[in-house]
Q: What sequence folds into this?
């Protein structure tokens, strides 16, 4: 059996009982290491599983999938993925290959940021498409995410924004020289994310020509848009911060702390209970812009719960 | 500590190791019983936890939340929810109350249908708002879900549709007489869901006046729209069926089998790998309408993977 097993969000104990049983009986255990990370290292997982773990790099998964699947028609093999395992097509691709080889497979699901973001108090029903924000470089600032965000904002639904992760990056020099030396992993901090968002927002705004166009198309005015940063969700040091884009963009990297992070841009269909719950994390507490903008721009009245 | 613990999708072993540890040390363990169900009964959970379980009905959670929270500032109390616990505002409400009483809380996340639907091969990123479809009655056929579906279809994103669950329903007679006698639980079968969808689709279509309006607004033509039924996701008898709305609506209740079920309406941004993976479950296999409609209406070319 080829098991694809979600590990959840935080540490070795977020695996399900069923997932752990599968790992325990597997001959080989792979850990997918390039789309997300757990908050614990490989050694801690190995100690908990009482098994060695093989790190599955992107190269291994994409180029040597057959090596991973090998013998899984005869013995049990586990492929571990942080979060819920079927979010990214990389792993559906692995399952398609197994299927074409008539290898039996079982997926063992787990928590994902896409539902754990319920911790914000925002309802999962009210989210639109999920976006990913990549690291901007001097010459490469792709802004296609902005069009999807606008689609969500026009409908009034909330948007989850996943922040870029870079693992096993090569410097240009090492790549040019064919040296397999990798840079330390990088995880985008919300401070950088907000700065990129404001950059693209202002670029797009500058393309608008008339007052009417701005009125109609300017969907993300920083002082009038509510957002929430989500840091280390599902871990003991989980931290949420809510406020206007402007307030959030003025915070330092340290205020968000260690990875992993993601963001939510709040849609106009925000309702009172969502507003109240997410307001628990407001910059400036009861005096924060969260409450003023929620009332004046989003039109939500506070209620007592 | 007041723990809110997700149980995942299928049976007693879908709880996480962390969740199980919290249950084991709790003085009282509640099981929320009205927004979803596990595939195993209370007795099996009690045997696995070696603890009695208190069933938390909607009345208990909404009217006697303080009873549930009682003493959780001094001892550990667990509140178990099928899936990931923070999808519905009922439970965020409980956390807000705990917060106002200064009770420490911890949420232990788990798998939800909202990410497990990755089993279809469709990418989670490409989903829009999630809808719920309630049981239509003779006099009550609410169709507001259709407007949200159209919003998603216009963007070309996929739509998850959750199907109604009725637990602890009273018959009109019993309700009138104040008798606390409850009907057996009901879970909507995809057969009924597709029939309701086609009903509303045809009602809405009949409101359109001109050929142009039909061209522009008729977003859900049954023979040209792809959909997928998801039954018992995450359980050993998991079953997916993909096809056109028309094909799917011609299947019998039995072909979908036991609950729980949900549906996906496929959006036009469908890409080749999604198309291929979900096509594994196509009615009629390689000769099904899935492939024809995917190519002609959705414009996806098949690739070899």
A:
């Amino acid at each position: 059996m080829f098991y694809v097993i979600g590990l959840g969000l935080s540490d070795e104990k977020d695996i399900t009982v069923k997932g752990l049983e599968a790992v325990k009986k597997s001959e080989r255990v792979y850990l997918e290491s390039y789309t997300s990370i757990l908050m614990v290292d490989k050694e801690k997982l190995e100690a908990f599983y009482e098994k060695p773990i093989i790190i599955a790099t992107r190269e291994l998964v994409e180029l040597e999938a057959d090596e991973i699947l090998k013998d899984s028609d005869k013995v049990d093999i586990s492929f571990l993925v942080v979060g819920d395992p079927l979010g990214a097509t990389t792993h559906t691709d692995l399952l398609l290959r197994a299927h074409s080889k008539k290898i039996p497979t079982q997926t063992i699901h787990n928590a994902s940021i896409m539902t754990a973001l319920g911790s914000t108090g925002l309802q999962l029903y009210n989210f639109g498409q999920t976006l990913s924000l990549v690291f901007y470089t001097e010459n490469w600032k792709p802004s296609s995410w902005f069009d999807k965000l606008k689609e969500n904002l026009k409908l009034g639904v909330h948007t989850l924004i996943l922040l870029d992760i870079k693992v096993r990056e090569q410097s240009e020099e090492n790549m040019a020289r064919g040296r397999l030396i990798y840079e330390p992993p990088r995880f985008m901090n919300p401070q950088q994310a907000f700065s990129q968002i404001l950059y693209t927002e202002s670029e797009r705004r500058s393309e608008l020509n008339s007052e009417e166009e701005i009125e109609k198309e300017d969907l993300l005015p920083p002082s009038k848009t509510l957002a929430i940063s989500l840091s280390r969700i599902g871990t003991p040091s989980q931290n949420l911060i809510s406020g206007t884009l402007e307030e959030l963009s003025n915070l330092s990297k340290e205020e968000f702390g260690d990875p992993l992070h993601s963001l939510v841009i709040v849609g106009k269909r925000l309702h009172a209970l969502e507003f109240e719950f997410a307001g628990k994390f407001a910059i400036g507490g009861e005096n924060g812009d969260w409450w003023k903008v929620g009332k004046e721009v989003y039109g939500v009245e506070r209620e007592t719960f």
